[in-house]
Amino acid sequence: MKLVKNLGIIVAVLGVVAIAIGGVFIVEGMMKNNLIVDRMNIEKVSLALDPNNPGDFTPINNAGDAQKAADTIAEHRRAIAPTYQDLLAGGRFDSTNPLHLTYAQAMNLENYLYMAVTAFGLIQVTMASGAFMVIVGLAVGGVGFALYRVGREKA
Predict the structure, then answer these.
(1) Which of 137, 128, 132, 112 is nearest to 30 (CA)?
(2) pLDDT at residue 131 is higher than 90
């Protein structure tokens, strides 16, 4: 029964490792989420809540708000020109043309927000994976502890 006892120890240790790694995933996800939200707050990236009240803004701090803001910017950008090629009309980008500059800045902010949407989604996946690891770690650790007790009682 020494084998069962030793196996129980190994399985329990694996459970603890899974819990620790899951915790790291959760903490890392929270840290990255806070980083993105803080950076957006520093840059004062916000979303108009009501088109009839343009002075009423809310900070962007989740994927839904970032998606909504990016889609709004894309809609406004396409009002300037449906595509980048349409904007250039066979020519080259002219940094002295205010329309070209406005379009380019809209593309930059739009891409920034779509990257935030992706990052927020990846953060959610990372944190969910971490939570799953913690749950599995608890289950595996419990099995390891049970094996250890069985091995100790039979010895």
Answers:
(1) 128
(2) yes
